[in-house]
Design goal:
By secondary structure, the protein is an alpha+beta fold. Among the domains are: about 180 residues, no CATH class; about 80 residues, no CATH class. Helices cover about 40% and strands about 15% of the residues. Strands 1, 3, 7, 8, 9, 10 and 11 form a seven-stranded antiparallel beta sheet that branches. A two-stranded antiparallel ribbon has the order 2-4. β10 and β11 form a beta hairpin. The protein is globular, with a radius of gyration of 23 Å. The two termini are about 35 Å apart. Bound molecules: adenosine monophosphate and magnesium ion (MG).
Length: about 475
């Protein structure tokens, strides 16, 4: 276990130099205080969890102090936002403080979001508000607990610094961890600004540090792109299987590691709704729940375009062609497991689609349906779940198909079925209204609800005593919350 001053830095991205990032010091928050910390994320840095309670922790992650070895940098990138190219973006309010190695030899970027203005702030104030910092923190740690690749969050630091959004709010910082903060938009920036030398340097950097096994392949860059396609297909399959809506899948928010990244007005589905749009400024539904699948491919094509100096167009096209079949295979595999099936049959896709259509028409809770389906034998469970559906004849027909499919699947006890299904079907997810309750309390200075909710979400598959209130459908007020897009 390490103390805070024992972290080991090796700032490889900073060493790429001024063409890639700019040195900027964090702008401290007034009266920094710990809102919440993740013990699991602290363990990634070998940090003793007790250090979160020390004043120096809030000072470090509230922008007051820096390690001597840290080299805070704002990264430059660009990207396609809602389909249109923006020639220059960059870290407008976040800083890469440095890269830290843990004892296992893994390196982690320390990225402080809300750290003040940078050369890339454009019209922004460089700040993040408490509300959005708490949402990013909870989502990162909740997605991780569900087994969905994501950036992690070490802590949220609150403050008395006023920040103006639709109304006056308080500034906060979230410390984000990831093996890399390089986005699709990094490659696009050097491609569209016609800087081939820097672009080659960036590609070498990513290949050497993050895809070293691709070096062994005849065409290392192509192998790396294929790997990026595969990882994104798998990540998005998991989003779809668990009902996660990212909300702002711009190419500057897509990680070259295939992890969920840069949380905005995201949401987990309550009722199943394929057309759900969580971002209220997304008037055309470009990033609606079901559109995330084709948008994943669109974003990969944007990255492919930026890689044309290194890889032939035909090879890029072929690699892009892997995306949909891989997505489909991962998605179907997960949905089979959510249905309690251990074997694969041709018609399973139809079984899944049939169920989703019925859920869509009846507004059935996406998370609780699967959890309850595993509570009892297939026959008993469908009898009990039937009341949630409006189209009873339709549901009965589906239930018959499902029971027959389960009977063909194998011979196991209900105990085995429950255990297997509960291990993939969470009881607790980060519902918007739960986040909203925790945020309202935190905004009035009480952080206990954020901490409790975070604790519950770190073990989403395990029924926890006294936590029934976190496993409920939303009350009426919490069903269609307008989550502000400002952050
Ligand atoms: P996002 O939609 O949060 O991914 O941000 C898109 C771009 O706007 C990125 O370059 C951000 O750094 C920048 N940005 C967002 N909010 C702010 C802010 N409050 N101050 C400065 N830059 C910001
Ligand atoms: Mg972003």
């Amino acid at each position: 276990m390490k103390a805070l001053d024992e972290l080991t830095f090796d700032n490889r991205f900073a060493r790429l130099g001024d063409a890639f990032s700019t040195h900027v010091l964090p702008e401290p928050l007034d009266e920094p205080r710990l809102v919440v910390a993740s013990k699991a994320a602290m363990a990634l840095l070998d940090l003793d969890p007790a250090v979160a309670q020390t004043p120096v922790f809030a000072e470090l992650f509230g922008g007051h102090k820096l390690w001597a070895e840290a080299e805070p940098r704002a990264m430059v990138y660009s990207g396609h936002q809602f389909g249109g190219y923006t020639p220059q973006l960059g870290d407008g309010r976040g800083l890469l403080l440095g890269e830290v190695y843990n004892e296992a030899g893994e390196h982690w970027d320390l990225h402080l979001k809300g750290a003040g203005m940078t050369p890339y702030s454009r019209m922004g104030d460089g700040r993040a508000v408490l509300r959005s910092s708490i949402r990013e923190f909870l989502a990162s740690e909740a997605l991780h607990a569900l087994g969905i690749p994501t950036s992690r969050a070490l802590c949220v630091i609150g403050s008395s610094t006023p920040v103006w959004r639709e109304k006056q709010e308080r500034g906060a910082m979230v410390l984000r961890l990831a093996h890399s903060h390089i986005r699709f938009g990094h490659f696009e920036y050097f491609y569209y600004t016609k800087k081939p030398e820097q672009q080659a340097e960036l590609a070498e950097h990513v290949l050497n540090l993050h895809y070293p096994e691709c070096r062994e392949q005849p065409e290392p860059y192509l192998a790396m792109f294929r790997e990026i396609v595969e990882r994104n297909a798998e990540m998005i399959a998991k989003w779809q299987a668990y009902g996660f809506c990212h909300g702002v899948m711009n190419t500057d928010n897509m990680s070259i590691l295939g992890i969920t990244f840069d949380f905005g007005p995201f949401a987990f589905l309550d009722d199943f709704d394929a057309h759900f749009i969580c971002n209220h400024s997304d008037h055309e539904g470009r990033y609606s729940f079901s559109n995330q699948v084709p948008i994943g491919q669109w974003n990969l094509s944007a990255l492919a375009q930026a890689l044309t100096p290194f890889i032939s167009v035909d090879a890029l096209k072929e690699a892009l062609g892997l995306y949909l079949p891989l997505y489909q295979a991962h998605y179907l595999d997960l949905m089979r497991r959510r249905l309690g099936l251990t074997t694969a049959e041709e018609d399973d896709q139809t079984l899944v689609e049939g169920l989703l259509k019925l859920m869509q028409n009846s507004g059935v809770d996406y998370t609780l349906f699967f959890r309850r389906l595993g509570d009892e034998s297939a026959a008993l469970a469908v009898t009990r779940l039937r009341d949630d559906f409006v189209d009873l004849a339709g549901f009965d027909a589906w239930a018959e198909q499902y029971k027959a499919r389960v009977a063909r699947d194998g011979d196991y006890t209900q105990e085995q079925r429950r255990e297997r299904m509960h291990a993939v079907n969470p009881l607790y997810i980060l519902r918007n209204y739960l986040a909203q309750n925790a945020i309202a309390a935190a905004e009035s200075g009480d952080y206990s609800e954020v901490r409790r909710l975070h604790e519950v979400l770190t073990r989403p598959f395990e029924e926890q005593a006294g936590m029934e209130q976190y496993a409920q459908r939303p009350p009426d007020w919490g069903k269609h919350l307008e989550i502000s897009c400002s952050s």
